[in-house]
Amino acid sequence: MIEKLLLTIVILRTAWQIFLEVLNLLYSTNPKSRIPDMLKDRFTPEVIEKSRSYLKDRTRLKVVSQIVQMFATIYLVLHGLPLLERLFMVYSPLLQAFLFFGALGLILYAVNLPFRLYSIFVIESNYGFNTATKRTFLRDQILTVSLIVAFSMVLIPLLLWLLSHPVWWWQASILVFGFILFFWFIQPLLIAPLFYKFTELEDEELKKKIREFIKKASVKILKIYKVNASKRTKKQNAYVTGIGRSRRLVLYDTLMDYPQDELLAVVGHELGHHVKKHIQKDVLLFSIYAMFQLYLTNFLYRQILKSGAFNVQRPHTIFVYSLLFVSAIAYLLQPLVNYFSRRMEYEADEFSAKLTNTPTSMISALKRLVKANLSNPDPHPLYKVWYYSHPAPGERIKALSRSIRSES
Ligand SMILES: [Zn+2]
Q1: What backbone phi and psi angles, to 5 degrees, belong to 229?
Q2: Which residue pairs, CB below 8 angstroms and at least 24 apart, start in 169-175?
């Protein structure tokens, strides 16, 4: 019974994912699809054509990858996980868990690798975005895997300790909360610099302007760095990250040839995230979300344990089965999480417009970003609700233009 339920949920989720992808593609590439008026000056017919074909290529890859992932999951549920469990049965419980998660991680990595390679070295390269060499890619992979192994050395023994209690979700929630704080603190200090180079801004005039800007936003100190994102992509972005002393504002070096007023508007947007305490809100939201998922995982863990479903007995295997259930259920909550995220983006845009005394710089920065990143100018409403952590470009510009009208 539980077996059939899990397989049904996995298949239904994939069907829904594919439905959303196809719906969005048909909607956005329909010749009658409307390009929002405010984007028309930058979105020439050639840019529209290019952005539609970029969307088509990415959607095709996503759909194939979702189907492959579904079959991989079904295989793991029916045969793979019990097989992995039996394979390492002779060792001590801790070694069993290490080998089990190691082998499972390797399988999942191998399933995803072709899609990652195709995405970076075929699609992103074809559209002129990718700048990563094979060497950079390999180095990134080795580093990422090493970090995961290092963290697993601590997390797997902790997990086994937790699973030795019948009710473990609240203890796990406390640990997860501590881990989020720890990770978000060290991420910008220790982890991101393994992959990227962070340097101070060179342009003295720009630096002075940003400092004035920070003062105007009544922010005490905020470190600002430029990151050499151009080593991997031509796409453009900026972000705030870190907790407490590790807090910083990071600008992609690909933004550096922006007109100064637009660059400052982007800085203003990121300052908005900082001033409005969006990272703290994110941590809180993520922790509540994690707690709910852990509660559900614990509940399912006990059901599987009691019913003896799936023919497995080791705590770590049963844990993975419960996690598979919960991740499929959590997919249903994605619209809620993205709803909060989109609201924060509106807030940050509004903050930037106030700080620069005009929304026009932010509007033209957005147009430049959308064109440079070939973002989809007109996603399907349902797709937006499900997946968009940022409002669609047209909606952000519309909200910003409204603030012009309400001012005048
Ligand atoms: Zn933002």
Answers
A1: -60, -25
A2: 169/291, 169/294, 169/295, 169/297, 169/298, 169/299, 170/291, 172/294, 172/298, 173/287, 173/290, 173/291, 173/294, 173/295
- Tell how far the Cα of 251 is from the centroid of ligand 1, in angstroms: 12
Residue 400 alpha carbon to ligand 1 centre in Å: 14
From the list 344, 316, 356, 388, the residue with the least C-alpha distance to 152 is 316
Q: Tell me, in angstroms, the distance from the centre of ligand 1 to residue 64's CA.
A: 30
- 3-class SS at 238? strand
CA of 206 to the centre of ligand 1 (A): 21
C-alpha torsion sign, points 171, 174, 180, 181: negative
Q: What are the tokens at 246?
A: 């590790």
**Cα(72) to centroid(ligand 1), Å:** 35
Per-residue pLDDT of the chain (408 residues; tens, 9 = 90+): 889 999 999 999 999 999 999 999 999 998 877 777 777 788 888 888 999 999 999 999 999 999 999 999 999 999 999 999 999 999 999 999 999 999 999 999 999 999 999 999 999 999 999 999 999 999 999 999 999 999 999 999 999 999 999 899 999 999 999 999 999 999 999 999 999 999 998 888 888 888 888 888 888 778 899 999 999 999 999 999 998 889 999 999 999 989 999 999 999 999 999 999 999 999 999 999 999 999 999 999 999 999 999 999 999 999 999 999 999 889 999 999 999 999 999 999 999 999 999 999 999 999 999 999 999 988 999 999 999 999 998 899 999 988 766 654
Q: Report d(CA 271, CA 278) in Å as an integer.
A: 10
Q: How far is the CA of 391 from the centre of ligand 1 (A)?
A: 10
- Give the distance (Å) from ligand 1 centre to CA of residue 389: 9
Distance (angstroms) between ligand 1 centre and the Cα of 168 equals 36
- Is the Cα dihedral 273, 278, 283, 286 positive or negative? negative
Query: 399 CA distance to ligand 1 centroid (A)?
Result: 14
Distance 277 CA to ligand 1 centre (A): 12
The Å distance, Cα 255 to ligand 1 centre, comes to 15
- Statement: the pTM of the whole predicted model exceeds 0.85: yes
Q: How far is the CA of 386 from the centre of ligand 1 (A)?
A: 18
Gyration radius of the chain over CA positions: 23
